[in-house]
Amino acid sequence: MKFSLLVDNNTIDLGISRMKYTHYTEEDFIKDEYFQKWVLNPDDMTKNFWENWITSNPDKREVVQNAARFIRLMDFDVDELSDSDFNTMWQDIIQRRKEVGNNIYIPGKSNGLKRKQLLKFAALFIGLIGTAYIIFQTGAFTAKESSVVMDSPQITLELEDGTIKVLDETSTGTITNADGHQIVNQKENTLLYHGENEAEPGNISYNQLSIPYGKKFELILSDGTHVFLNSGSKLRYPVTFLSGKPREVYLDGEAYFSVEKDKERAFTVITDDMNTSVYGTEFNVSSYKNENNTSTVLVEGSVGVYKSNNSDGQKPIVLEIGERAVFKEGTIAVDQVNVAKFTAWTQGKLFFVDDRFELILKELERHFNVTIDNQFYQLNGKRFTGTFTKESLDQILRVFQEHTAFDYSVDNDTITIVNMEN
After folding, report:
1. Which of 56, 126, 242, 294 could join 287 via S-S bond, C-beta 3.0 to 4.6 A?
2. Dihedral (CA of 20, 21, 23, 27) sign
3. Measured between alpha carbons, how far apart are the two ends of the chain, in Å?
4. What is the C-alpha separation between 5 and 7, in angstroms, rounded?
5. pLDDT at 80 over 50
6. Per-residue pLDDT for 188 more than 70?
7. Conformation bin of residue 37: beta by default, left when phi > 0, alpha when psi is -120 to 50
8. How far is CA 178 from the centre of its chain?
9. 368: Cβ contacts below 8 Å, ≥ 6 apart
10. At 99, phi and psi to the nearest 5?
C-alpha cells in the first residue's frame, strides 16, 4: 500500500515512511501490510527496507521478531499439525488466557471451526492481548478496520402513488405499485425503466430514488439515459418522458449522466441553484444542499448551464470538454479541471486534488456512512492531493496522520478528530 500526498505543494511519500514505524508496537507491526509482505513474501525492496530499518532501530529488534513469528504462525497451514501438536498449542493458549484474566471469548474446538481458523483466532488473542478489541477475518489477517458498527443504510424508491420500496442491491425482479402495475425492473444495483410511450400531456408521473451515505446506485431512464447516483443523493424523474416535451430531472446530491441523444428534446438537470441542459452528452453534476456548492463538469459533448430561476434572462453558458461551471454567491464561474477527479467516484475511487481537509472529510462521511467531528480546526484549511481505492477509513486517516499529527476516536458511527497536543 503506497500513497503520495501533495500537501501545500510539497509531495510526501506516505507509503513506507521510515518514521511511521518508530513508535510501532508488536500489534501495529502485525497489522501492517508492508511488514506482512516482508515476512511472508519478501522481495529485494522489502528486504532492503526492513533490514536497514532494524539496523537503525536495534531497540525494536525483539518486537519485530515477535510480530514476524505471529504472522508466520497465522499463515501456517494448521491442518497439517498432528492432534497432539494442536492440543499442546491450544492448551498453551488457554493457560495464557487464564494468566491475564482476559474475558474476551475464544471459541473452543467444539464450535465447528476448522483448525486453521481456530488457530488464527488464537494467534490474534496471544498477539493482541490487552488491546481494546480483536480483529479477525477467516483465511486472512488484514490491517485494522474501522470499528464502526451500525445498521446498513437502505436505498429507497418512492413510486408515483407514494409507495416506498426498499431496494436490495443483490436482488433482481419487477417492482410494482400498490395496484400491482409494473413500474420498473431491477437488476441488482440498477433500475431499468421501460421505453417511451405516447402518454398524453398532463399524465406525467414521477419516481424518486434516494441513496444513503455509504451506497451508490444506477438507473436507466425511459429514454435510455444512464444515471450514476453518488452517496447521499436523491433524483426525482418521470417514469416515462412525454413525447414532444423536454426531459427534466431534479437532483439533490451528485450524479453522473450519460444522456441519450435527442436533438428535438433537451435533457435538463434541475438543482436549487443551477440547471444544466443538453441534447446528448456525458457530464457530472454535484449539488449537495449541505455543502452550498453546485457544479457541472463536462466530460463529452457540450452543455449549457444557467441559474435556476434565471430571472435576469441570461443565455446559458456553454461549456467545453474539461471545463467546470461553479455556482457561487449568485454567479456562475467557469474553469478548466482534471475531469478524472470528478468522475472517479463512479469507479469507487476517492480522488483528491488540492482539496481542503474539511471538504475531504465530507466526502469520507458520504463514502463510509459515518459522521466525522473535526475538533482540530487548524486542519480544515490544509490541502491534500491523493487517490484511494479499497482502503478502509482507518487506513485513510492514518495516511493523513503522517503529514499532520492528530488523534481520533470512534464511538459507534461517529469519528472525532482532536489535536494530539490537547
Report:
1. 294
2. positive
3. 31
4. 6
5. no
6. yes
7. alpha
8. 35
9. 146, 148, 213, 214, 393
10. -65, -35
* CB 193, CB 221: distance < 8 Å: yes
For 291, the grid coordinates are 455543502
Domain 155-341 fold is Jelly Rolls (2.60.120)
List the one residue out of 241, 256, 195, 191 whose CA is nearest residue 218: 191
Report the topology of domain 349-418: Phage tail protein beta-alpha-beta fold (3.55.50)
Q: What is the pLDDT of residues 379-395, one digit of tens each?
A: 998 998 888 988 889 99
* Phi, psi at 88, each rounded to 5°: -60, -45
The CA distance from 60 to 21, in Å, is: 10
* Residues 263 and 281 sit within 8 Å (Cβ to Cβ): no
- How far apart are the C-alpha atoms of 98 and 115, rounded to whole Å? 21
DSSP-assigned letters across all residues of 234-300: EEEEESSPPTTS-EEEEEEEEEEEEPPP-TTS-EEEE-SSEEEEESS-EEEEEEEGGGTEEEEEEEE
The pLDDT of residue 218 is 96
Flag the least confident range among 106-110, 222-226, 383-387. Answer: 106-110
Phi, psi of 64 (to 5 degrees): -65, -45
Strand 4-7 vs strand 172-176: parallel, antiparallel, or unpaired?
unpaired
From residue 244, how far is each of 132, 197, 269, 308 by CA, in Å?
A: 63, 11, 18, 22
**This model's pTM is above 0.90:** no
Q: Is 174 exposed, middle or buried (0-12, 13-18, 19+ CB in 10 A)?
A: exposed
Give the span between the Cα atoms of 390 and 350, in whole angstroms. 9
Torsion of Cα atoms, 52 then 56 then 62 then 68, to 10°: -30
Place of cell 412525454: 242
Residue 70: strand, helix, or coil: helix
Domain ranges of the chain: 16-127, 155-341, 349-418
Residues 6 or more apart whose CB falls under 8 angstroms from that of 60 comprise 21, 24, 54
Per-residue pLDDT tens digits for 27-69: 888 878 888 888 888 877 777 778 878 888 888 888 888 888 7
Cα radius of gyration rounded to whole Å, the chain: 27
Q: Which residues are within 8 A (CB) of 203 and not within 5 positions of it... i.e. 6 or more apart?
A: 242
User: What is the spatial distance between Cα 66 and Cα 69, in angstroms, rounded to a whole number?
Assistant: 5
